Amino acid sequence: MAISDPASGVDADAPAGDTDAPADETDAPVDEADPIPPPTATGGLREYLRDHAVHAAVIVGFVLYPLAYEALLATPAAPFAEAFLPAITFMIVVLYMGLFAMSFDFISGYTGYLSFGHAAFYGTGAYFVVLAANGQIPGIPGGTPFMITLLLGAVVAGLLALVIGSVSFRLTGVYFAMITLGFAQVIYELIRSWGYVSTNPTEGATVSGDALAIGVPFVDALSLDVGRLTGESVENLLGLGIDLSTTVVSYYALGIVVVGCYFAMQRILHSPFGRVMIAIRENEERARAVGYPTYRFKLAAFAISGFFGAIAGGVFAAYSRSVAPDGTFYFLVTADALITTIIGGFGTLAGPVFGTLFTQGLEDVLSTESGGVATLLREGLPASVLEADLFGVSLELFVNTAVDGRAPLYLGIIFVLFVLFVPNGILGTLRDRLGGTVGKRLPDYLRRYLR
Q: What's the burial of 183, exposed, middle or buried (CB within 10 Å: 0-12/13-18/19+)?
């Protein structure tokens, strides 16, 4: 049901700024005088593939990236690849932090309610997985398959979201944001002082059992162990002579979970439920006036958002095999999601992933963990150039001071510039330029210029 203003004829479920809502364009009004051809299987499949061509291209890019990166490392361009391309370990961070940012955008970007305490759900999923693996969750024996504990942890986080939301959604605006932050800080202080989770709860907890596997529970052939040191490796993949390291296998396994969660959230947003979420964002009073129980819709959206936020925390815990309060429940975890969502684009769902890729790529370029620009300059330039005096400062000192490890400084500057000049973020601005959602408009746009 479209929520419209009879005086203006404008749908309330269309986003502000003439950007397309995430619902399918077939939801737009159709002239009743025009005959509507019956859908066919071939036409429906062709239309589906056309609308999801961009999704397929992005997924293919993520699939091929580790292979291309490893191939570049075997060429003379290896120093430049290490300096300017994010390492696979950083790409894994992009996956689980991108999923967490998407869950944040699900509630904040599509209902307009900023959840500053979203780290509570991320931490709940992470700690549940670790404690369940250690046999510390009553009723869940140690050794329970990771996929089961992951879903159970997400359900617990969804229930927690219902509890927090039942109180928080009685407020709006900054008051809602602050009360969710207050709930998260209470949970953070509880976890960091609760001796049950660990002998040193301030430092967190560690998985003491076997590696955690992603795949079909109880079917070893369809499951892959993940982890920095405990993950599986693959030799001679499909007889093609391709070897996959433990890091790359973890990247693909975690990527399957993230992609599945993305399409699940996208399907919800494209449903009538998602249309009501957008109507609440645009004009909650009007949505309530036409009969929608907006409080229940907001509560359900918050629970769904918390569910997927816990999935992100769970896959992080599976890969790192350890969790700590400062890296899961702390409010700065939510701040990272907020920054990447603003850079990627609020109300775009996929935008936070690109925002996370942007920020993690910048951090990788400006760090020395896996190469970086500073390492390239120090190892690639001759000593005479590095020691050359430039206004009383050597080039080497300048690199060490202004480049190495300065990602937070430059990210802060870039964030300010985005807020001032690109307020809709990367994907939101691209939607504005194309005149609609990227998945639907980009193929036609490219065909127009490739003729």
A: buried
Percent of the chain with pLDDT over 70: 86
Owning domain of residue 274: 82-347
Q: Does residue 24 belong to any structural domain of this protein?
A: no
First to last CA, the chain: 39
2 within some domain: no
How far from 417 is each of 331, 334, 422, 425, CA to CA, in Å?
A: 23, 21, 7, 11
Burial (CB count within 10 angstroms: exposed 0-12, middle 13-18, buried 19+), residue 196: exposed
The single-letter DSSP state of residue 21 is: P
Q: Are 234 and 249 in contact (CB under 8 A)?
A: yes
Indicate the number of domains in the chain. 1
DSSP letter assigned to residue 327? H
Let me know if residue 119 belongs to a domain: yes
Dihedrals phi, psi of 323, to nearest 5 degrees: -135, 155
For residue 300, give the 3-state DSSP assignment: helix
Report the relative pairing of strands 212-215 and 322-323 from DSSP bridges: unpaired
Distance (Å, rounded) from C-alpha 38 to C-alpha 27?
A: 16
Query: For 15-29, 150-164, 363-377, which range has the lowest pLDDT when averaged over its residues?
Result: 15-29
For tokens 């509880």, what's the residue?
A: 190
* CA dist., res. 92 & res. 264, Å (int): 20
Tokens 């408009």 identify what position?
A: 441
**Cβ contact 306:155 at 8 Å:** no
**Strand partners for 408:** none
Are 331 and 120 in contact by the 8 Å Cβ rule? The answer is: no
- Residue 207, domain member (yes or no): yes
3-state SS of the chain: helix, strand, coil percent to 5?
Answer: 65, 5, 30
Question: How far apart, in whole angstroms, are the C-alpha atoms of residue 303 and residue 334?
Answer: 16
The two structure tokens encoding residue 93 = 């961070």
Radius of gyration of the chain (CA): 24
Q: What's the pTM value of the predicted model, to 2 decimals?
A: 0.86
